[in-house]
Design goal:
alpha/beta; seven-stranded parallel beta sheet; 319 residues; three-stranded antiparallel beta sheet; TIM Barrel; Enolase-like, domain 1
Length: 319
């Protein structure tokens, strides 16, 4: 597997998202195209090596067979106060679906409910997705669902941490007559058995991210074997990472939901002049190229570059 022309960049976030204020990533050239490797900093080498496997597959392998030329995307709303919501959502053109982050460590359920209700009241007709990154207990997630039962909630992504909790919540929702679907993210991409959530009928939807799952081939296998409806989402990547996720979405035979691939709107910039930013909430298939001036503009410090190069060397040894 070829790895050449390495750059390390750090792109600021517009707002704190997932607890981070800037997105660091390593960019390299393979035999076929440029790729991004961007496991989050807290991930240990074993987990980060799966992300590297994905990047190497993209950089050096053939493109997958695709079923569509465009992919519909959703807007993504960080856990911000209501007064900031209009400015953030104005960056997303023509959306009819919004994913709203909830359960941030420095906020409470009342703030989450206020954010969701603001969107429902000011953007009538939009479908709403909630994403808790596994931070709620079953009781807390049930409280949220009961409080929002009159709204157009499309699904609740990873409301609880464990598969057994997801299964319990799903059962309680059904018994309460609440038609809110459960989507699994971390219970798939961080699991030793990514199919357990489907086997135990703990979720209705699989949220798949190409880098954490080890590449397009592995993600397609999970999608097929799980039998669940699928949503493809990004991991706060540059255009290079989003492109890989986009080709995964295009390679899924049936795709009934908007995908979370419009996340470049959450970053202050990009390393490609032609960015993977949706037009009218759709992304068209193409292969972006990094720009030398932008790579220099967002170049990481020598210390951070050394960190990523050492991390790369360790993770290559694990493959």
């Amino acid at each position: 597997m070829e790895v050449t022309q390495i750059s390390v960049v750090s792109i600021p976030m517009r707002q704190k998202f997932r607890g981070i204020t800037s997105r660091e990533m390593l960019i390299f050239r393979g035999s076929q195209r440029f790729a991004e490797w961007s496991p989050f900093l807290e991930y240990e080498d074993q987990e980060a090596s799966l992300w590297l496997q994905s990047a190497l597959e993209w950089a050096n392998g053939p493109l997958p067979t695709t079923f569509r030329k465009t992919v519909k995307t959703n807007a993504t709303l960080p856990a911000v106060p209501s007064n900031l919501i209009p400015e953030i959502l104005s960056r997303f053109e023509g959306f009819d679906t919004v994913k709203i982050k909830v359960a941030e460590s420095d906020q409470n359920i009342a703030e989450d409910l206020a954010r969701v209700r603001f969107v429902a009241e000011n953007y009538p007709g939009v479908k709403i997705r909630l994403d808790a990154n596994g931070a709620f207990s079953v009781d807390q997630a049930m409280e949220i669902c009961m409080a929002l039962s009159n709204l157009n909630i499309e699904y609740f992504e990873q409301p609880c941490q464990t598969v057994s909790e997801l299964a319990e919540l799903k059962n309680r929702l059904e018994h309460a007559g609440l038609e809110i679907k459960i989507a699994a993210d971390e219970s798939i991409r961080k699991a030793s058995d990514p199919l357990e959530v489907a086997r135990l009928q703990a979720a209705d939807i699989a949220v798949l991210k190409v880098q954490p799952l080890g590449g397009i081939a592995e993600a397609r296998k999970i999608a097929s074997e799980s039998g669940l409806d699928v949503v493809i989402s990004s991991a706060l990547e540059s255009s290079l990472g989003v492109a890989q996720g986009l080709y995964l979405a295009a390679a899924i035979p049936t795709l009934d939901y908007a995908c979370g691939l419009g996340t470049l709107n959450l970053l202050e910039g990009d390393i490609c002049k032609v960015s993977m930013i949706p037009k009218n909430s759709e992304l068209e298939l193409f292969i972006p190229e990094p720009d030398l001036e932008l790579l220099e503009k967002y170049a990481a410090t020598p210390e951070r570059t050394a960190f990523w190069q050492a991390r790369l060397a360790r993770c290559l040894e694990l493959l």
